[in-house]
Write a structure and sequence with these properties.
Elements lengths: L8 H7 L3 H12 L14 E3 L4 E4 L5 E3 L13 H13 L6 H8 L4 H14 L11 E9 L15 E10 L2 E10 L4 H11 L5 E4 L12 E4 L9 H4 L1 H16 L10 H13 L6 H12 L20
Parallel strand pairs: 4-7, 7-8
Antiparallel strand pairs: 1-2, 2-3, 4-5, 5-6
The structure holds zinc ion.
Zinc ion binds next to loops.
């Protein structure tokens, strides 16, 4: 299917002026080959009122938003579309407070939940793993050395980082919060992030030993701590960009329980940083938003205070 998306804010405003127009767009993203009944797989359906489709085979009333992040939302799709545009059109993303202001939302909580649902849609279910040569390392977030505001509520979080080699540069990345540096955890991260048969490059940490199904290049650090960045330059670059983003856009005020959402957003942006068109990011986000399971508000735990989004 040709990738079809608005290229400017003006285009977005004109094209998605009604909920019906938004729904029609989501329909083509969710069912690019034409309608497929979620219950019986039937391919024939009749449109009903309020955006429902009646399956011609089993009479099931299918909704294009059922099972997606838009399910059960009391917000109109027109507003969701503008939120997706805000999130994807700005280089560093949007904060909950910024979103609340721009969209004129009544409460900060609503903006915060909206943003976190979108973040969850940023990581595609069943996305493909990194291949080729992949650097893998770990880093800490939070704690003393970051100068994090509100650090009294935070302990250090461990983040595993994988960065694909692309010539002298960086290809795609994967980030995940991990509980510890045990062999099981690190090998598990690699299995999720890197395609078997690829070459994994790590430092000398013992826990990386015994990797099965991968080529393994260990780069052991000498006595000079400055040399660490040269051993695995790509992951070190990713880590420094990640920390700058967390500290800059979000003032570092991110509770550990929400860190995963931010890692997902950073990964989404980073892996599409070469994309010439911001509209294309909008397209990807909308596409992924109709693929994921719904996130009830309760599962987002409790919204943070103002300034934390
Ligand atoms: Zn059916």
């Amino acid at each position: 299917m040709a990738e079809d998306y608005p290229k400017t804010l003006m285009e977005l405003e004109q094209r998605f002026a009604t909920n019906q127009a938004c729904r029609a767009y989501l329909f083509t993203l969710r069912w690019p080959e034409g309608f497929a009944c979620p219950k019986c797989g039937g391919r024939v359906a009749w449109p009903m009122s309020r955006g429902l489709w009646l399956c011609g085979r089993c009479r099931y009333q299918a909704s294009v938003t059922a099972g997606t992040i838009f399910q059960d939302s009391h917000l109109p799709l027109t507003l969701w579309f503008r939120a997706m545009w805000q999130v994807t059109s700005q280089k560093n993303g949007a904060s909950a407070l910024g979103l609340q202001r721009v969209l004129g939302l009544g409460s900060y909580q609503t903006a915060w939940a909206l943003l976190h649902k979108l973040r969850r849609a940023m990581v595609r279910p069943g996305r493909d793993r990194l291949t080729g040569v992949v650097e893998v390392d770990e880093t800490y977030w939070g704690g003393e050395e970051e100068g994090v505001r509100g650090r009294q509520t935070q302990d250090k979080a461990l983040i595993a980082v994988a960065a694909q080699e692309d010539g002298g540069g960086i290809g795609r990345i994967r980030l995940r919060r991990i509980p510890d540096l045990t062999r099981a955890t690190l090998h598990g991260f690699i299995a999720q992030a890197v395609e078997p048969g690829s070459t994994v490059r790590t430092d000398g940490l013992q826990a990386y030993r015994g990797l099965v199904g991968y080529g393994h290049e260990r780069r052991v650090q000498g006595p000079d701590p400055e040399a660490a960045g040269k051993l695995l330059p790509r992951v070190h670059r990713v880590v420094s960009l990640l920390k700058r983003w967390l500290l800059g856009t979000h003032q570092g005020a991110i509770g550990q329980e929400y860190l995963d959402y931010y890692l997902d957003e950073f990964t989404f942006r980073f892996n599409r940083r070469q994309s010439a068109s911001r509209g294309k990011l909008f397209y990807r986000l909308a596409q992924q938003a109709v693929q994921v399971a719904p996130v009830p508000f309760d599962s987002l735990v409790h919204p943070q205070p103002v300034g934390a989004g």
